[in-house]
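Re: your question from the hallway

Yes, I did run it. Sequences:
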Amino acid sequence: MQVIILGPPGVGKGTQSILISQKLGLVHLSTGDILRSCVESKSPLGLQAQEIMNQGKLVSDEIMVGIIRETLSAEEMKDKGFILDGFPRTLNQAIALDEIFTSFHFSDVKIINIIADEDVIIKRLMGRGRADDTLETVKNRLRVYKEQTIPVKVYYKKEYPVFDFIGMGEIDEINARIIDALKGIRERA
Ligand code: AMP
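Structure:
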């Protein structure tokens, strides 16, 4: 199974992705985590990405698509399946991902969309204490989400069934609903 998890920053994609990957035995692929480990190791990509991330902007499509193509080519991805957390974030990334899925014969694609009120999201992001969670950066990330990532959701809704979930309330309850949906029970939050 190939799962794509969509939603604004701070909606709980990371938390839910980890639980889903544990319960379904999928590989958890967070592009934010991949970039943060590049920043930590001070690799050339990390140094380039750090400034962009701290401003709440997006790393280029070319770099991100390259990372994803390379990561998804591992045998493990075919064997176990995976959950993509934080990718695609632009329409170009979504279109590139369609091509990658076709070329790797990934055809059991399920798309999860998590929603929450903006004030809840801002409060959560401000409470995390990450380097890119200052008020200015948070506002920028939400603006970037609306401008660049909402079109991804619109694109997917035309192409695939997209399961919508409300990401407010108990983490375990939200997770149980998502797992049920992924196992084939069409439930709506
Ligand atoms: P996240 O942990 O998913 O909130 O990502 C943290 C930051 O990493 C984002 O604000 C972007 O600067 C960068 N990033 C993560 N995923 C992507 C992506 N798919 N495209 C571009 N930038 C990304």
